[in-house]
Amino acid sequence: MSAENKFRRKEDFNPFFQLHDGMVREYALPFPDRTGTVKITSAGGIGIIDSVNHTTAITAPWQHFNVFPFVEMNFMLQGNMYQTHEGVLNRCLYGKDYHNILFNPYSNEVNELIGMGSYRMFGVHIQPEKMITLFSGYTPELAHVADKIASGISFVMQAPQKQLTSHMRFIFDNIWQCPDAAGLRSLFIESQILTLLSLQCEVLMKPSTPVAKPLKLQAADKEKIYHARDILTARCDNPPSLAELSKLCGINEFKLKKGFKQLFENSVVAFVNEHRLNEAKRLIYEGEKNMSTIAYELGYAHPQHFQRAFKKKFGVTPGSLLK
Questions:
Q1: 78-132 pLDDT, tens digit each
Q2: Which of 211, 201, 177 is nearest to 71 (CA)?
């Protein structure tokens, strides 16, 4: 890889607006635990980052500080990952076909690939002034979003379900099949992204299933639910039933069940299962216990059950972490 293609942080891509409109650059990823490429370009106040990652093992999360106040259009085209945007998204699952429009200027961002294999993330970064003009001029239904951008207020608009239309997929498949002349290339890219924005907004504006009203939790209720979480963590090998847990914490089952989901974005059962598997991964990396011991210590009746659950969550078998 030539010196001019080396970079270490996503911030190194942010100056894509310094490229001449229509100029396309492709770089090799610099990470030691994966291979792949990232392609960038800009056109008319719009920047594109199209990255492809290939992994053969569990990879480390990476993070950066968003130093420029872009409005982002994010699309997960292949693979799954978690993304955290400080104050807006907390380890949000970007499953295949997930997409959003996000504005969170001057904030920390953490990304974590799930499992291993191939991943493609397509990101569009639009200068705030341009997005304000687009929303205000063409979509009066989103005028309130333009007001948030103008005021510097963070937000995220997520598709009600994982849905990419055939027209959207066509754009992703053909965005780089653009004319050779720089001016025509810039015109082509900008027109394709504006079309993609209109299609995405159409999906985002569709009526979704009404969200249940949040449960009103007093400070004492939250303290009891956090105590319930601590009990589940300490006893993940043999967790108490919901009825037993509610008695131990002095809170009724309904409030415990609904409040737990509200605070931790997970059901009690799902929380225990996820904690078990994360603890298993930690123990495997320590290398002091064999797989059967880890499985039994964490409450799995059979090692085979543990192996299936582990592979379902992380995309690899427990034993592959030792290779």
A1: 999 999 998 899 999 998 899 999 999 888 899 999 988 899 999 999 999 999 9
A2: 201
DSSP string, 11-78: GGTGGGGGSPTT-EEEEE---TT-EEEEEEEEETTEEEEEEEEEESS----EEEE--S--EEEEEEEE
C-alpha gyration radius of the chain: 23
The domains of the chain, with CATH numbers, are: 3-204 (2.60.120.10), 219-322 (1.10.10.60)
Q: What is the DSSP secondary structure assignment for residue 246, as one 8-state letter?
A: H
Phi, psi of 237, deg, nearest 5: -75, -25
Within 10 Å of residue 282's Cβ, how many Cβ atoms? 10
Sheet holding 155-158, edge to edge: 24-28, 35-43, 46-55, 117-126, 71-78, 99-103, 155-158
Exposed e or buried b per residue across 51-71, where buried means at least 16 C-beta atoms within 10 angstroms of its C-beta? bbbebeebbeebebebeeebb
